[in-house]
Amino acid sequence: MVSPGARRLGLSRGLALRGVVIAAVVLAAGMAVPYIVLDRFYISMLFDGLVLALLALSVGFLARHLGLISLGHTAFYGGAAYLVGISVTQWGWSPLMAALTGLVGGTVLALVMALLVVRSSGMGFLMLTLALGQALYQLSIQRVAIPYTGAFDGLQISFDADATFLGLSVAQMMNGALFWPVVWTALVLSALGLWLVGRSRFGTVLEGIRENEERMRFSGFNTYWPRVLAFTISGAVASVGGVLFALNAAYVSPDVLSFLKAGDALIAAIVGGLGVLLGPILGALLYIVAQSQFNQSGNLYLYTGLALILVLMFLPGGILGSISSIRKRLARRSAKENSP
Hints:
two-stranded antiparallel sheet; two-stranded antiparallel ribbon; LivM-like
């Protein structure tokens, strides 16, 4: 049976319910991580992986449904983080109000950028997003921006001593183990939301645009506004990551807007698998762990590059993407063997 709301979205009640149940189970299971991983260093490392996963998830959503690779999502991630810092430091707002400001501001910025770039595709889209993202980076380090961003020195976020966020004190927000439930919940809900969007009628339209935009236009579909909306949704997810990063770190620097941060998110998504919803999440966690290990050798970028080359050569669809492809091939072979 399909409810009227689900019918309008192109979702069956069973499919939506299954997704919600799985998300609830994963959410509950993830809450146990701080009780299992007791070492503060490792829980902080996993926490950083969750924050990067939100940024990688937003990049993977665009790549999966529209075939577009963005290097500009750090603008929403970093822009939201800076808005949190400015709201608290300059305007004296509470952490909750600052977080809402960062989320709304990052999403609006994504909408504005979407209106400018979504008509392009391929390399043109990639370079436009990179250029606009780097423009915001350059703006953050200008002399006139020092009172707001601190330029290269960064912005120290000074919360009030009695400030709280969803019942957590400032000290608890800065503790990865105690702030874990908030970030884990945000990640699971973001993944569920993107999964529902991808399974909806809107997701089908996006995939049609990805496969053949010209045919979609000839079929009577407006291909511009769906691309704008998809870009804005992905930007909102990246903004969530930026907000949570700022609340936890209580410090924002231009690095959150840099090309290196954009590269981290893209590499994480590629390693996990751009074509699978959970790929960027797995990739982000593995990327953070690998970075910690590679950094001990003093050859961080050398080993990172070699690891990426190996993944692209032997697992071209990423880890989860390649596993999914192998499983589908085995299923087809089994069906062919069992057919009369």
